[in-house]
Write a structure and sequence with these properties.
mainly beta; globular; 8-stranded antiparallel sheet
């Protein structure tokens, strides 16, 4: 964890041509097409200045998706680039640059870059947090009983 003392300054320059911040490594989040596809992550802030949060940037390439998961901790998310869809519990929403959303404790969620472009989002979470859980067959069946959810999970929503 990075530690800063009072008076220290953190400044990271954004490199538009690369969709990255200087001195911030880009990591492939996970390579498992059954769970994630074409997602990278950069940790922009990691608990400095007595703020016990991690601030991250995720980029989902066109056609990619994050995992379908839930967990005890909450997230605060802002769509930074592009557009796509997000599943929040049992509802599917279109998202685009500037949209803000919260992901509540134990709420099923997944992001998809399925509207003809990449989807980049900023995410803030507590540093201390639990690990995600993935749906059981029964939970997945229950989710699929909701309007638009099967098309979302199957990557078949219409691009707009």
């Amino acid at each position: 964890m990075l530690k800063y003392t009072r008076g220290d300054l953190m400044f990271k320059k954004f490199k538009k041509n690369k969709n990255t911040w200087e001195d911030t490594p880009t990591h492939i989040y996970k390579e498992n097409p059954d769970i994630f596809k074409d997602v990278t992550r950069q940790v922009l802030f990691d608990g400095a200045f007595d703020l016990p949060v991690q601030f991250r940037y995720f980029q989902v390439e066109e056609g990619g998706y994050s995992s379908l998961e839930h967990h005890e901790h909450s997230h605060f998310v802002m769509i930074y680039k592009g557009k796509g869809h997000v599943l929040l519990e049992n509802e599917v929403h279109e998202v685009e640059e500037g949209d803000i959303l919260t992901i509540n404790s134990w709420q099923w969620h997944q992001f998809r870059a399925d509207r003809g472009t990449l989807l980049g989002f900023l995410c803030m979470v507590n540093i201390e947090r639990d690990r995600p859980s993935y749906p059981t067959e029964k939970e997945l069946e229950d989710l699929r009983s909701n309007k638009n959810v099967p098309e979302f999970l199957d990557g078949k929503l219409q691009k707009k």
